[in-house]
UniProtKB/TrEMBL annotation:
Keyword Oxidoreductase: yes
UniProt domain Beta-lactamase hydrolase-like protein phosphatase-like: residue ranges: 3-109
UniProt GO MF annotations: FAD binding; hydrolase activity; quinone binding; sulfide:quinone oxidoreductase activity
The protein's required cofactors: FAD
CDD domains in the record: PTP-bact
Keywords tagged on the record: FAD, Flavoprotein, Oxidoreductase, Quinone, Transit peptide
Protein's UniProt name: Beta-lactamase hydrolase-like protein phosphatase-like domain-containing protein
UniProt-listed InterPro entries: BLH_phosphatase-like (IPR005939), FAD/NAD-bd_sf (IPR036188), Prot-tyrosine_phosphatase-like (IPR029021), Sulphide_quinone_reductase (IPR015904)
GO process terms (BP): sulfide oxidation, using sulfide:quinone oxidoreductase
Length: 551
């Protein structure tokens, strides 16, 4: 925990976790206030988890979620009321602590000089000068400018920054992201199967960002593309010549009734969160019999194969340990097919049949009662009516619905569905010609995978450099995506495809036939892809990903 004291009554911090609560009680805190909406990050516990742990320690817990950069006066007033009425001292937290510090600044603006507020913020490590326009209107809000601004330091953002610097080392690039840790999310399926240790999938952001970029550790509040500006939390403004948008997507845990209250216990798990993937493996090891459910929500989701990867690897473990006959495995998929590219379905069906998995299509998980071990699904029946179906479980692997982040869907960059609206070939924004998008946040009709980002990053790097006059030609993206479907421990069906579901194998069939389970494909996933990610993709090495120029 990195706790920053603002006043004797209030401290702020980045995201806290359940194991932190005993230490907070020992430090004397009597109330925690959460200012971060659930689902902002892949390593974020829900408020319900924090609140339950706080109650166990005798600490009050309040939920005052504020979207990044959207702190309004009513939020600040309620925050101030909490400080006055709740037992102190109080710890308020969000992703970085900035939203909490902003709420405090606005809540006491009428009683403190602006210089005093800014000085208090600076002492705690938070730059509150961007609030000048709201607290001290005669002052001018400071701005900074960079030739290229990248929103998001995930796989897509870092790969693009590195590809740009590999082409033009002198570029002025700023990367905007408040996260302190970078995750290799494709590895979480392997963590959930006991193959990888969780810590091997996480590294400090300082260690993976290119040394020549300016890292602005702050969240984006809004976009002003007409002014070539990005507004950060705390009202700080960053101007750009070219903008690259790749913040990933939002996991909407709250869309499933009761889920936040039971995640990580009662047999409810998900490999889509860093801290829960080890719980998946624990459940798989401990389950001796009963019912194991695996769910998949409506598309789009990141890595559409991940829900069934967990199912196959779990079933394989139960089969190897002689327990599968006593476990009923069921797959509840909101979609209508096992996999979106039909060429790979026959190989997958052989495993479905060998594991005795029951497939249920058109069923979307809508509610869950962890203590009662009951899950409720909704499906559309003839005539368009919605039908609810309830079933029991001993273990359930849940995949949450996924949407564009709120600051994207509410921005001028979004299409009607909330995703960044780009040309699917050039990845250039359809309305703002100095804006590009890639990764999970765009509306391109490809699979949302790290493999797609690996192919997209060099395309965006080339096209941005061309827009700056540093090269010529237009690079194109063909929709490439890859999904290594872990059908058993030691074998993978390596699905590779382009836009429209066209099969596009990287290797000759005599080496790796993607339509058949392969030991070599498993070695690729286990031994080669992680170092390729850390030492290749994130370092600007475009092995097998060099962009193709339009003719």
């Amino acid at each position: 925990m990195e706790i920053k004291k603002l006043t004797d009554a209030l401290s702020v911090s980045p995201q806290i976790r359940v194991p932190d609560l005993p230490a907070l009680r020992a430090a004397g805190f009597r109330t925690v206030i959460c200012n971060r909406p659930d689902g902002e990050g892949p390593d974020q516990p829900t408020f319900a988890e924090i609140a339950e742990a706080a109650r166990d320690e005798g600490i009050e817990a309040r939920y005052l979620p504020v979207k990044s950069g959207m702190v309004n006066d009513s939020d600040a007033a309620l925050f101030g009321e909490h400080l006055r009425s709740l037992p102190g001292p109080v710890l308020a937290y969000c992703r970085s602590g900035m939203r909490s510090a902003t709420l405090w600044a606005l809540s006491c603006a009428s009683g403190k000089a602006f210089t005093e507020i800014v000085g208090t913020g600076n002492a705690a490590g938070y730059d509150l000068t961007g609030l000048a326009g709201r607290i001290a209107s005669p002052l001018v809000v400071s701005q900074e400018r960079h030739d290229i601004v990248i929103v998001g330091a995930g796989a897509a953002g870092i790969a693009t920054a590195s590809s740009l610097l590999a082409r033009a080392p002198g570029l002025d690039i700023a990367v905007l992201d408040p996260a302190a840790t970078h995750y290799y999310q494709p590895g979480w399926t392997m963590v959930g199967a006991g193959v990888f240790r969780p810590e091997t999938t996480a590294r400090s952001m300082d260690d993976v960002l290119p040394g020549k970029v300016h890292w602005i550790k702050a969240a984006v509040a809004a976009f002003e593309p007409e002014n070539n500006a990005v507004v950060l939390e705390g009202c700080r403004v960053v101007k750009y010549g070219q903008l690259i948008v790749c913040p990933g997507l939002k996991l909407d845990w709250n869309a499933i009734e009761g889920l936040p209250q039971t995640l990580g216990r009662n047999g409810v798990t998900s490999n889509y969160r860093y801290d829960l993937a080890p719980y998946t493996w624990r459940l798989v090891q401990e389950l001796k019999g009963g019912r194991a459910l695996f769910t998949q929500p409506p598309m789009p989701i990141k890595c559409a194969g991940a829900p069934q990867k967990a199912m196959y690897l779990s079933s394989d473990h139960w089969q190897r340990s002689g327990r599968l006959d006593g476990i009923d495995v069921e797959f509840y998929n909101a979609g209508a097919a096992l996999f979106g590219v039909p060429d790979y379905v026959p190989a997958l069906m052989k495993y479905v049949e060998s594991y005795g998995i029951k497939l249920n299509f058109g069923f979307n998980l809508s509610a869950i009662d962890g203590r009662a071990k009951r899950a409720t699904f909704t499906r559309t029946v003839a005539g368009g009516a919605a039908e609810r179906f309830e079933t029991e479980f001993d273990m359930i692997h849940v995949v949450p619905p996924q949407t564009a982040p709120d600051f994207i869907s509410a921005s001028p960059l979004a299409d009607a569905a909330g995703w960044v609206d780009v040309d699917q070939t050039t990845l250039r924004h359809k309305r703002f010609h100095n804006v590009y998008g890639l990764g999970d946040v765009t509306n391109t009709p490809n699979a949302k995978t790290a493999a797609a980002a690996r192919k997209q990053a060099p395309v965006v790097a080339h096209n941005v450099l061309a827009a700056l006059g540093g090269t010529s030609g237009i690079a194109t993206y063909d929709g490439y995506g890859s999904c290594p479907l872990t059908v058993e421990r030691g074998k993978i069906v390596l699905a590779e495809f382009l836009y429209g579901g066209k099969v596009a194998p990287t290797f000759p069939a005599w080496l790796i036939d993607g339509k058949r389970p392969s030991r070599l494909a498993w070695l690729l996933k286990e031994r080669i892809l992680p170092p390729l990610y850390w030492r290749g993709m994130l370092k600007g090495k475009e092995w097998l990903a060099h962009p193709r120029l339009a003719e």
